[in-house]
Design brief:
five-stranded antiparallel beta sheet; 6 helices; alpha+beta; 5 strands
Amino acid sequence: MANTDYGSMNVSALKVELRKRGAKLNGLKEQLIQKLQDYDRNNNFVGNITDGIKNDDLAYTVEWPSDSSYISVTSKSVSPDLDIVNISTYFLEVYRDNVGMTECAAVHRKGYNMMINEYLVALVTCTQNNLHFYRGQVHSENTKALSYFVSIAFESDGKIVQSMCECAAGMGPKAVCKHIACVCYAIL
């Protein structure tokens, strides 16, 4: 049901769809819709979607620095030449074959709002092998008792090379989720 308008479904119908996928059924309607969209975007979290995706896109190509290499981000930290175009381009490349523009815009908006509303707890950086690495800790939108850790690698021109997040939508080397968007907006 990848192109289903979940917003038009009632809560009972949403729970039926979630039950088919073995997902948790708790949450408000908006949260249930988000879960279903995450499942659609990630092929129900079973195996890799390989149709139309090169094998290179599925592999982790970046060697991530050790934890001890990172330092806190300050106003004097060297950062990549990142702008909104870099962020949008990366997200659209990942979304183009999966969910589409509407979902991409929603993730951007949620990530930006999370950054504005101070869901970003911590941000550290490291530069190594001509790449800029960032790790962020971002609170869950549903409860601040839960945080997700985000890792993003940028080239110096601001192009995102790889990203990953601990949340369900942020799995894989080319992950896109609201937590990754939050960190990207914080770096701007």
